[in-house]
């Protein structure tokens, strides 16, 4: 991850998750962290699916691209916003406020990405 690469350059940042202070890994950050789990719940409820706890569980919907294009956009936004907000906390000293704050970031990202979608998907997004 980014901090591992910084360590190689002798720029030391802690390897703890900025959200929950457990050991950070890709899997932890995107799926197992308490913040990530709270962000996936509304997605799972809205789409009536189970995301699971791995990239493979998200990627299985990417394979059926046209059929799941709205879900793919939303799941990509969740992954992107978790990463983006984490980096803002690490590198820009952004303060943590709440899960709803990150949900708003995800919503705004989906709205911005909707302009790239088909007309039928825009309505759903």
Automatic annotation (TrEMBL):
Q: Which domain of life is it from?
A: Eukaryota
Domain Reverse transcriptase zinc-binding per the UniProt entry, residue ranges = 2-40
Protein name, please? Reverse transcriptase zinc-binding domain-containing protein
Q: Which Pfam families match?
A: zf-RVT
């Amino acid at each position: 991850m980014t901090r591992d690469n910084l360590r190689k350059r002798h720029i030391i940042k802690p390897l703890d998750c900025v959200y929950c202070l457990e050991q950070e890994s890709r899997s932890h950050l995107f799926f197992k962290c308490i913040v990530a789990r709270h962000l996936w719940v509304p997605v799972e409820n809205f789409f009536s699916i189970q995301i699971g706890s791995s990239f493979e569980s998200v990627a299985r919907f990417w394979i059926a691209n046209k059929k799941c294009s709205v879900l793919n956009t939303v799941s990509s936004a969740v992954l992107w916003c978790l990463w983006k907000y984490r980096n803002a906390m690490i590198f820009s000293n952004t303060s943590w406020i709440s899960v709803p704050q990150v949900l708003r970031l995800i919503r705004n990202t989906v709205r911005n990405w909707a302009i790239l979608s088909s007309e039928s998907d825009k309505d759903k997004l």
